[in-house]
């Protein structure tokens, strides 16, 4: 028996074995696991510290970039303000240039500060990484020394493993402690249930907050006409606050769950330590009982874990369902609010259209009134002219009658007188008939025109009033109907939301109570079921143990030799397998360390790459700023030149207008003088006709004077027609100018809309392409693809600029060609009109000369000289008019040239405006791209950190799984070996006992009967607790007296040696 115990000592025992040597040898594995766990925890803490430092540096870097962007934006705003203020404040250009230089210096200073800060941050990062690496190496050395010390302590503890036998009494207390811990775990579970109830309370508070927010939204909808924009901003702020609150609560819940999981893991580890210790100190014969209890605990723990997991899953599902329902309701409310806002905007647009229609109708009514008043004024003027012509005819008739009477009274040349009288009477009759016809025509035309115009004006006014009243009535009715519908919908939606909110709250409360009751019932039922199953399993295991013992007694002789051989083979296999496992573990650890180093190097490279990209982007932005400054200065100079040219053109236009006004006044004066001369000539002719110098000369003189007067009237009418044609030409030129200006504005608007649309489409395509490519690209190829993307985006931008310039040049050329064609046409028409006027003047002059010839031969010298002077004056006047007509085309061409210059200048200003707009669009796009790049870099760093954390968690889980698999394999192997050893030892003991019993039954039956009875009763008492001890007592009872005393002496000496150790 001693030999067997000595031969068993060097075996590598496992946990759960019944021998004391095996339980003591398992302590190095436990300490190794604790060492690995502590190392892992320290590594996790260090990695967390590193991530915090990196995050703080990244945030500082982002803040500095934001400050730089703010400075650049301020710089751009200052430049824009300077460029807009240069047109009116040319004297402040020096101050603005100094301001620009100061801004450039500040920008350069900010860039220098940013570079220095970036260098300091990089040096600080390197210093922190070096310190952390040095601390990590020092701690690794300290942990190696501590490991050696713990190994030495474990070696000393291996010698003291014998005194663990006395800790059997403390095992019961440990079991009680475990029960207390289980009660504490249950209480923690209940506290967690309370915490979940608190979470439900928070959810209820959140739902109430959502209710209040919806109420505020409804109130904002009622006040939408007054503060729609403020309501939307308030809702966005509240949504951001709610999202931050939800995020904060989610993070807090995750933190609490993580802390609870860590506490549970610590409790689980503590429980595993106690279980391993219980396994170490328990004896061989309590193995089945302990295994049964462990299985029962494991099943209970698994059931509890499964129950907790199911409860958490249900809780997550409920939270998810609640969040989805609330999100859908909020989305529905947002959609309804947007629909109501759209309807309101449509009604507003409709009202604006109606208002515009009313204004157009009013304008048409005013224009009709003006036309009616103009027609009335024309009718009045025609009537006045008719009255004047009638009076003139009456005067001529009286003159003719007086002349005829004078001729009759004189009695000279009765025949001639009769002929003249008859002629005069015929002329009088003709004049009277002509007067009546003119009166009838003028009266009929005036009456018809007035009646038609009055009827048309009345019908138009009534139709306008009726259409306006019907439109207003229909719009008012439609607005009232829409207002009533919107109020009804709002009230119905409010009632429906309140009802749904109350129903949801009642349903959630009922479901929570039902779920709590059901969980309590299930927990109690599970506890009862587990207790029943434990008792049944205990009974079944006892029965199986008895049956197994009987079976083993039968098979022990056959299995003895085979077990010994298998034990030796298994020993060799186990040693080789342990060595191979240790080598595999070391290789895996080395591979994991290499993977960790590789990931760290990748992260460093990525960080350097990102820093280089940021530096390049900053340099590019600086180059763009310098180019923009240069362009702004050039635009400033061009604007100054344009302002000077515009002022000169304005002054020249004012001078031309003044000159035209003076010429018009001179022409009016000359016409007045011509009319005065005509009236004076008529008066002279009348005086001559009244004087009666000769009998035959007055009629001829009167006839010639009347012809001359008619010719002068024709000349005056021709001059009026020329003036009217000139005015019409001027108005036509003005309309052509307005039409050209409108065309220029339309072309400018079209070019602006095309450029804006192209820029917007290009920006949208760039943003969509950027988002898609950033989502699809991998971490290793992010930066090269981004650089390629920048180049690809720059190429379309350059092409877009070229197309814009080409379109602008084509529009300018087309507009210039149209202006030139219209100007040529206007010049040609003016030349043709001038030629016509010259021909008419020549005809009039020839007629005047032909008619002035007889007068010179019939009158006396004084009258002829006077008439010659008058004719000379008329000729001079015609000459002046001809000269003015010759000068008129020059003025017309000068005005056309001024208009062309003004159109060119407006085109140039429009081109400059489009250029500045394009530059602003490019700046905006650049800022958006920089923001997208910063966002992408931040997301990339977060993705890298998340990937590193995932790799760390995978590494941790892999190491834990490998350790668990190794422990399970070793435990299974050790359990098999220990079971085989126990079976062989039991078989040897049974054989020895049978041999001794058979040897000494007959010789010592009567002498040891009493002792045998005592030992038998003692065995009956101890058999359920320690079957091995009972078998040893049976063995002692069968020994003879000498050998029994010798064995007792050995046991006493062993106890004495054990006491000092205790």
From TrEMBL:
According to the UniProt entry, the coiled-coil residues are 816-902
Residue spans of biased composition, Basic and acidic residues class: 188-212, 218-262, 280-335, 345-354, 586-608
Q: Where is this region: Disordered?
A: 1-25, 188-262, 280-354, 468-563, 581-608, 767-805
Q: What are the protein's UniProt keywords? A: Coiled coil
Superkingdom per UniProt: Eukaryota
PANTHER family the UniProt entry points to: PROTEIN FAM184B, PROTEIN TAG-278-RELATED
Task: Please give the name of this protein.
Answer: Family with sequence similarity 184 member B
Identify the species of origin. Oncorhynchus kisutch
């Amino acid at each position: 028996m001693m030999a067997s115990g000595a031969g068993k000592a060097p075996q590598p025992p496992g946990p759960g074995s019944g021998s004391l040597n095996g339980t003591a040898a398992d302590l190095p594995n436990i300490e190794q696991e604790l060492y690995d766990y502590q190392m892992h925890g320290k590594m996790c803490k260090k990695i967390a510290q590193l991530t915090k430092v990196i995050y703080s540096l990244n945030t500082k870097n982002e803040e500095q970039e934001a400050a730089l962007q703010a400075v650049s934006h301020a710089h751009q705003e200052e430049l824009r303000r300077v460029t807009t203020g240069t047109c009116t404040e040319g004297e402040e250009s020096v101050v603005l240039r100094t301001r620009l230089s100061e801004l450039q210096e500040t920008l350069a200073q900010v860039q220098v500060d940013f570079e220095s800060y970036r260098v300091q941050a990089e040096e600080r990062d390197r210093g922190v990484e070096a310190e952390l690496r040095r601390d990590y190496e020092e701690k690794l050395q300290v942990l190696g020394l501590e490991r050696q010390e713990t190994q030495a302590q474990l070696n000393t503890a291996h010698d003291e493993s014998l005194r663990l036998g006395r800790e059997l009494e403390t095992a019961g207390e440990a079991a009680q402690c475990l029960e207390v811990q289980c009660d504490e775990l249950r209480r923690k579970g209940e506290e967690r249930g309370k915490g979940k109830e608190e979470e439900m309370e928070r959810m209820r508070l959140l739902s109430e907050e959502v209710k209040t927010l919806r109420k505020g939204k409804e109130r904002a909808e009622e006040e939408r006409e007054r503060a729609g924009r403020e309501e939307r901003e308030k809702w966005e702020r509240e949504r951001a606050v709610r999202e931050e609150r939800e995020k904060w609560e989610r993070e807090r819940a995750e933190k609490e769950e993580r802390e609870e999981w860590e506490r549970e893991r610590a409790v689980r580890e503590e429980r595993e330590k106690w279980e391993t210790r219980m396994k170490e100190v328990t004896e061989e014969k309590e193995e089945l009982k302990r295994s049964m209890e462990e299985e029962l605990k494991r099943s209970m723990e698994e059931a509890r874990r499964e129950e907790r997991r199911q409860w958490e899953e249900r809780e997550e599902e409920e939270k998810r369902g609640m969040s989805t329902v609330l999100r859908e309701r909020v989305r529905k409310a947002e959609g309804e609010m947007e629909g109501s806002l759209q309807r309101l905007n449509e009604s507003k647009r409709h009202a604006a259209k109606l208002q515009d229609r009313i204004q157009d109708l009013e304008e048409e009514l005013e224009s009709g009134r003006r036309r009616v008043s103009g027609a009335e004024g024309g009718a009045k003027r025609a009537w006045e002219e008719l009255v004047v012509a009638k009076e003139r005819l009456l005067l001529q008739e009286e003159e003719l009658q007086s002349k005829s009477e004078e001729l009759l009274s004189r009695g000279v040349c009765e025949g001639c007188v009769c002929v003249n009288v008859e002629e005069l009477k015929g002329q009088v009759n003709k004049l009277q008939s002509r007067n009546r016809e003119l009166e009838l025509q003028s009266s009929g035309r005036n009456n018809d025109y007035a009646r038609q115009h009055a009827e048309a004006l009345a019908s138009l006014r009534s139709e306008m009033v009726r259409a306006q009243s019907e439109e207003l009535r229909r719009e008012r009715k439609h607005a009232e109907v829409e207002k009533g519908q919107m109020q009804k919908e709002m009230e119905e939606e409010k009632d429906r939301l309140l009802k749904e909110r109350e129903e949801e709250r009642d349903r959630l409360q009922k479901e929570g109570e039902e779920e709590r009751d059901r969980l309590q019932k299930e927990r109690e039922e599970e506890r009862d079921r587990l207790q029943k199953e434990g008792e049944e399993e205990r009974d079944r295991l006892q029965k199986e143990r008895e049956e197994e013992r009987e079976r083993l007694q039968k098979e022990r002789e056959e299995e003895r030799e085979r077990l010994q051989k298998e034990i030796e083979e298994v020993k060799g296999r186990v040693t080789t397998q342990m060595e191979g496992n240790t080598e595999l573990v070391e290789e895996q650890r080395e591979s994991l360390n290499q993977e960790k180093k590789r990931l760290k190097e990748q992260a460093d490279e990525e960080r350097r790459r990102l820093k280089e990209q940021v530096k390049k982007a900053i340099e590019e932005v600086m180059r763009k700023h310098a180019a923009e400054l240069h362009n702004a200065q050039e635009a400033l100079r061009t604007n100054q030149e344009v302002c000077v040219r515009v002022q000169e053109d304005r002054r020249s236009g004012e001078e031309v207008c003044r000159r035209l006004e003076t010429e018009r006044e001179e022409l009016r004066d000359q016409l007045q003088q011509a009319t005065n001369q005509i009236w004076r000539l008529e008066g002279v002719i009348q005086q001559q006709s009244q004087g009666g110098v000769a009998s035959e000369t007055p009629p001829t003189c009167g006839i010639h004077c009347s012809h001359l007067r008619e010719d002068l009237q024709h000349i005056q009418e021709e001059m009026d027609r020329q003036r009217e044609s000139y005015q019409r030409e001027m108005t036509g030129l003005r309309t052509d100018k307005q039409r050209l200006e409108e065309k220029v504005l339309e072309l400018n608007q079209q070019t602006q809309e095309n450029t804006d649309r192209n820029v917007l489409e290009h920006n949208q395509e760039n943003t969509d392409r950027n988002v898609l490519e950033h989502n699809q690209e991998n971490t290793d190829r992010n930066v090269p693809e981004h650089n390629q993307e920048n180049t690809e985006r720059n190429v379309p931008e350059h092409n877009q600029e070229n197309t814009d310039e080409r379109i602008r040049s084509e529009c300018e050329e087309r507009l210039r060609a149209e202006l030139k064609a219209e100007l040529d046409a206007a010049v040609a028409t003016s030349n043709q009109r001038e030629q016509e006027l010259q021909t008419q003047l020549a005809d009039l002059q020839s007629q005047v000369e032909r008619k002035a010839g007889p007068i010179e031969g019939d009158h006396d010298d004084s009258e002829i000289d006077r008439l010659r002077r008058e004719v000379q004056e008329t000729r001079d006047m015609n000459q002046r008019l001809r000269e003015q007509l010759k000068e008129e085309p020059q003025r017309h061409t000068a005005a056309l040239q001024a208009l062309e210059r003004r159109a060119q200048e407006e085109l140039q200003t429009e081109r400059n405006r489009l250029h500045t707009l394009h530059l602003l669009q490019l700046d905006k796009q650049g800022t958006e791209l920089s923001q997208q790049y910063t966002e992408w870099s931040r997301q990339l760093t977060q993705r890298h950190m998340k990937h590193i954390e995932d790799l760390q968690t995978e590494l941790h889980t892999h190491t834990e799984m490998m350790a668990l698999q190794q422990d399970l394999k070793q435990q299974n192997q050790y359990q098999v070996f220990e079971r085989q050893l126990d079976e062989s030892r039991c078989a040897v003991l049974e054989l020895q006992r049978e041999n001794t019993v058979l040897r000494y039954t007959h010789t010592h039956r009567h002498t040891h009967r009493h002792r045998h009875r005592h030992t038998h009763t003692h065995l009956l008492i101890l058999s359920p607790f320690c079957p091995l001890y009972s078998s040893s007592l049976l063995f002692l009872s069968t020994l003879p007296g000498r050998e029994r005393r010798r064995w007792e002496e050995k046991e006493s000496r062993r106890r004495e040696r054990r006491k000092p150790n205790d």
